[in-house]
Amino acid sequence: MSFATIGIVGAGTMGHGIGHVCALAGQTVVLYDLDDARVAAGLKKVEVNLRKGVEKGKVTAEESAAALARMSGTSRLQNLADCDVVVEAVPENLSLKQELFRSLDGILAPGAVLATNTSSLSVAAIASVVADPSRVIGTHFFNPVHIMALLEVVVHVGTRADVLERTLAWGVAIGKECITVRDFPGFATSRLGVCLGMEAIRMVEEGVASAEDIDKAMVLGYRHPIGPLRLTDMVGLDVRLAIGEYLAGELGNAAFQPPQLMRRMVAEGKLGAKSGEGFYAWPK
Q1: Cβ within 8 Å of residue 174, ≥6 positions away
Q2: Is residue 117 domain-shared with residue 218, that is, in the same domain?
Q3: Helix, coil or strand: residue 3
Q4: Pairing of strands 71-74, 28-32
């Protein structure tokens, strides 16, 4: 009931991480990106992370070598034609995801599943461009994929029962704890996480406490593994700003509106870990 051959579109942070866990679980992985350089960079990141796993005793050298042998890369979308499922891990842009799914719809076999790693966009809207929207499902992974245990599986009103069943079986096969969520803006995780993050930014803006102390309060007082402001830095302030604007509009809830401090930081290029500065300093 699971998937044997996995196609992944996007070799960046999320894409290479999804490939990592699938290959380690014994599945064949084809990693796609726009050019060979990006594909090679994604495969290299998997190699580096597996090497760290070996050094920490979490993965054997044999398991690492076998996982890498199961992975291949391509810059031709057509090379995903034989995949049982293709997961898109491209930027959070509805038009971009729709254009991609429209292309994949003409390449994949009718029985293949199309999965989107969107963290907040409507799965139904993404599926609307596909001839058979019933084969589309949301598979929201969390960063870093090879460490985070959760897989949020999102079903729109037209998702077939067998597609959900196969996706849940796949989640178990790659070592994830799955939750099933209906296709509402922000699903379960982004809706709660972004709301908390925006309020934490407003608290910094108002001078309630420092970013460090707000994060420490949530880590020590509520046992969150990481504070909301450090997490915002890791996700990217620009990414969370876009999600916040989307959720504020879709839900009609001002709690999701990005604070002016966040807008100013994004305008200044302070995007978090990827730019080297956000609420924290992130040395290269």
Answers
A1: 21, 22, 24, 25, 27, 151
A2: no
A3: coil
A4: parallel
Q: Which amino acid is at 283?
A: P
The encoded tokens of residue 266 equal 């994004």
Which residues lie below 8 Å from residue 186, measured CB to CB, with a gap of 6+? 120, 192, 194, 243, 247, 250, 251, 256
Q: Are 227 and 219 in contact (CB under 8 A)?
A: yes
pLDDT band at 69 (very low <50, low <70, confident <90, very high): very high
137 contacts 182 by C-beta, under 8 angstroms: no
Element (H, E) at 265: helix 260-267
Strand partners, 94: none
Task: Tell how far CA 253 is from the center of its chain.
Answer: 24
User: In what helix (H) or strand (E) does residue 229 lie, and over which residues does it extend?
Assistant: helix 228-235
Average pLDDT of the residues of the chain: 96
The angle at the Cα of 116, spanning 67 to 63, to the nearest 5 degrees, equals: 10
In this structure, are 193 and 174 located in the same domain?
Answer: no
Tell me: the pLDDT tens digits for 8-58? Answer: 999 998 999 999 999 999 999 999 999 999 999 999 999 999 999 999 999
What pTM was computed for the model?
0.91
What is the tens place of the pLDDT at every residue in 236-247? 999 999 999 999
pLDDT of residue 160: 98
Give me the numbers of helices (H) and strands (E) for the chain, helices first please.
Answer: 11, 8
Domain extent for 227: 189-267
Q: Number of structural domains, the chain? A: 2
